[in-house]
Amino acid sequence: MSQPASYDVAALRAQFPALKSGTAHFDGPGGSQTPEPVARAVYEALVAPIANRGTVTKAERHADGIVLRARAAMGDLLDADPRGIVFGRSMTQLTFDLARTLAETWRPGDEVVVTRLDHDANIRPWVLAAETAGATVRWANFDPETAELTAADVAAVLSRRTRLVAVTGASNLVGTIPPVAEIAALAHDAGALTMVDGVHLTAHAGIDVSELCADFYACSPYKFLGPHCGVLAARPELLEELRPAKLAPSSDDVPERFELGTLPYELLAGTTAAVDFLAGLTGSQADRRTALLETMSAIRAHEEPLRERIEQALAELPGVRLRSRAAHRTPTLLVEFTDRNPADAYRYLAERRINAPASSFYALEASRRLGLGDTGSLRIGLSPYTDDSDVDRLLDGLASFVAL
């Protein structure tokens, strides 16, 4: 049996200018650091002749090529049709736009399902859109002890009036990976569409939107080494059915009709560079899609032992409780202190150049469900560039904080 792909962590870290400061970054769920090739792609897009998309001038062709290459790159990353890749300012903006568009077809008595495990960006747009349409919001709860969200939890609030189910691919707060494909199948059986928030999951797993049965899948390149923008993937034929609000002169083509105004070409160039960077991480000579799957497998093989090491060490610290306990989860840990303020731990670690923030991280409903309120707790998130020395510093810092 062949060995799984791997990569040289030290060589990887050398490509991240931000890591040269000596800070240990455990804040990846909030945004990854940026490798030099991605920053260079952004720069090169801006210093070359550029204009609105077109085919006549060199500047127009430059812009057009950037967009098409970015759609193809995200298509490979998500195993999605590039013709269904929509770019926007952020996942939040894209979800609000989609919610308003879909809500035009909802009527009083229709229902929308959201989960308390989700980031608010996959809750509030749907709640507000439902209120405007007179639709009813149904809430799927998760088990606060195990942090598990099951298909049965969602099935309990489904009905023939359900028009959409919004569910996270992975919790940005506790890392839980719910059975998305099973949940989506139940939603489809009820006649509903599915919206999957893949922002956190995409950074830690190989994604196939068709295997997830996701009608809509959203993610953010800045969580997987890219620049700050958002991506929505859907089948082109589904997008053709939707009529979003747009300017009269703007294109009515799909996916352009969903992209309001001129796209940030430099960020799309950076997005392509991030996908290519990931594809090249293990030195694979396979096609880009296959190389990406090999990379994501290698990232998981690197991150999981580090997560287990942290969990084992924290289990031995007094006054510490881990809230990330799902059977399937990303390398993301939520740490609760029985008699200490997590914000104090955040500041204590930051003074030692260890970035592990404390908050609810916009997963407000999840934080409340866990009994942590609006302020949340300390989150530790691993990234492809996390190494053993980072973990040593984190564990030493937490041990000394607890001992104060």
Q: How many whole angstroms does the radius of gyration measure? A: 21 Å
Q: Give a quick account of the main beta sheet: strands, pairing sense, barrel closure.
A: 7 strands, mixed
Mean pLDDT: 97
Number of strands: 13
Give the distance, in angstroms, between the N- and C-terminal Cα atoms.
50 Å
Which strand order does the major sheet show?
2-8-7-6-5-3-4
Low-confidence stretches: none
Helix content: 25-40%
Q: Give, in order, the helices and strands.
A: HEHHEHEHEHEHEEEHHHEEHEEHEH
Can you walk through the features of this model?
The chain is 38% helix and 14% strand. The strands form three sheets. A seven-stranded mixed β-sheet has the order 2-8-7-6-5-3-4, sandwiched between helices. It is α/β, with parallel strands linked by helices and 404 residues long. The protein has 13 helices and 13 strands. The mean pLDDT is 97. The protein has helices at 9-13, 36-47, 58-78, 91-103, 124-133, 151-155, 180-189, 236-240, 265-279, 288-314, 342-351, 364-369, 388-403, and strands at residues 24-25, 85-88, 111-115, 136-140, 162-168, 193-197, 216-219, 230-234, 320-322, 332-337, 354-355, 358-359, 377-381.
